[in-house]
Write a structure and sequence with these properties.
463 residues; Immunoglobulin-like; 3 domains; six-stranded mixed sheet; 5 helices; 11% helix; disordered N terminus; binds CU-O-CU linkage; binds copper (II) ion
């Protein structure tokens, strides 16, 4: 006998499929959005100061997931779900060697569990859906932080409910620092700013609403750190932006409207070997970017728009507000990336339709394969349509080594260590992966959250 929740999900699966048929309506909506955002560029929009979540330590942290009201800008409150009444939730700031002791409290009306995306933790701390807690419940996490510096994040991971909970506002940043990175003298303090970029839809009252579609949620507005049409006052200084694509399904192509280059210094798994100058960068759901933007040559009063070239949206306006002279240099080498090599075996994962990996929908009780701890393996991701699929693996970072078909190349933002990689239509992507942290159960899934919720996910065990 299926539980109430399972029955409800059957219904919401139907809603997904129904949504897929309504592509004409979605396309029409897309045009309207584009027309509306062109007006933003014309300066008709009131911009709001960018929200920057408070920074907290992972030691003794209490996180409560609950329905709340959020000011998206301009003072009017919108209903949302959030951690500690903040959207995004507080930015956890930890140093390698720290121990995280975090208690999650569930004040939602449905089960939840929090996953630390990018953090290498053991199975009981990984936020696997089997550990979901009921309304009113709590979960005590305790794990040592033993990995290189990186910008990770946290979000819910309950069985078939992840898309809705993330979309309504449950997500936050998790920064890990280490002594190597600290020695580089990268911009810090007010010159280091997290940017959680996502799309959203609001109802007539201005509340966040989740309307899943099997092809992936499509929001009608963008939010940066939960702020609508944001601006950030900047000094004439070098800035470090820790970017997360926190969308359910939308892929951004970031650019600065004045054509200036970003200096890409890192991604999911921390710093790259060396910085790269780029004028556009793609970032798929779950992926992170570590970007330097140089305002040192700007003049007070200059404005620079961070844009999404794909939808033609203005995301965040930088307003140069203060002349300073802060010494900063961009290091020419950033970190040592030891290349994985000589895989002992190859596994193939076919991302089928919108809900299956290798022909199977997710079963919370089924373990699909076993990986020996310490072995380097080649994992080959393929798809037969319905892509793009951002493929995410828990429990280890990996290196992207080849892409054939489709875009047929690797991009600078896919160098170094990754935990999420974009698989587009017609592509085969090879990664090399080695689990060195823990034995136990982990997940591989599509990070288009509607695909994940419909079953494009698999349990495996590191043995
Ligand atoms: Cu960010 Cu398993 O997810
Ligand atoms: Cu993850
Ligand atoms: Cu997918």
């Amino acid at each position: 006998m299926p539980s109430t929740k399972e029955r409800e999900f059957v219904l919401s699966r139907r809603a997904f499929l129904g949504g897929a048929l309504a592509t004409g309506a979605a396309a029409a909506m897309g045009t309207g959005v584009l027309a509306a955002t062109r007006a933003f560029g014309a300066g008709t929009v009131t911009r709001h100061p960018l929200f920057i979540p408070p920074v907290v330590s992972p030691s003794g942290l209490s996180l409560t997931a609950k329905p709340t009201s959020i000011d998206l800008g301009g003072g009017k409150l919108s209903k949302a779900w959030a951690y500690n009444d903040l959207m995004p939730g507080p930015t956890i700031h930890a140093a390698r060697g720290d121990v995280a002791t975090i208690t999650l409290h569930n004040a939602l009306s449905e089960e939840t569990i929090t996953h630390w995306h990018g953090m290498v933790v053991d199975h009981p701390n990984d936020g696997h859906p089997a550990f979901a807690i009921p309304p009113g419940g709590s979960y005590a996490y305790s794990f040592p932080i033993q990995q290189r510096a990186a910008f990770n994040w946290y979000h819910p991971h309950p069985h078939m409910l992840t898309g809705g909970q993330v979309n309504l506002g449950l997500a936050g940043g998790f920064i890990v620092t280490d002594t190597h990175e600290a020695g580089l003298g990268l911009p810090s303090g007010s010159y280091e700013v997290p940017l959680v970029i996502r799309d959203a839809s609001l109802d007539r009252q201005g509340n966040l609403v989740y309307k899943p579609r099997s092809g992936g949620f499509v929001g009608s507005i963008s939010l940066v750190n939960g702020t609508r049409d944001p601006y950030l006052n900047v000094d004439t200084a070098l800035y470090r932006f820790r970017v997360l694509n926190g969308s359910n399904a939308r892929i951004w192509r970031l650019a600065l409207a004045n054509g200036a280059a970003f200096t890409l210094i890192g991604n999911d798994g921390g710093l790259l070997a060396a910085p790269v100058q780029l004028t556009t960068i793609d970032v798929a759901p779950g992926e992170r970017l570590d970007l330097l933007v140089d305002f040192r040559a700007a003049a007070v009063g200059d404005r620079v728009m961070l844009r999404d070239v794909k939808a033609g949206w203005d995301l965040l306006e930088f307003v140069v507000a203060r002349q300073v002279s802060v010494p900063a240099t961009i290091p020419s080498t950033l970190s040592t990336i030891t290349k994985l090599a000589n895989p002992v075996r190859t596994r193939t994962f076919s991302f089928d339709g919108m809900s299956k990996i290798n022909g199977l929908e997710y079963d919370i009780n089924r373990i699909d394969f076993q990986v020996p701890l310490g072995d380097v393996e080649r994992w080959r991701f393929t798809t037969n349509g319905n892509a793009p699929h951002p493929v995410h693996v828990h429990g280890a970072s990996y290196q992207v080594v080849a892409r054939t078909g489709g875009r047929a190349r690797l991009f600078p933002w896919e160098a170094g260590w990754k935990d999420t990689v974009l698989l587009a239509d017609g592509e085969t992507v090879d990664i090399l992966i080695r689990f060195t942290g823990y034995r136990g159960q982990y997940l591989i899934h599509c990070h288009k959250l509607e695909h994940e919720d419909m079953g494009m996910m698999s349990n495996f065990e590191v043995i």
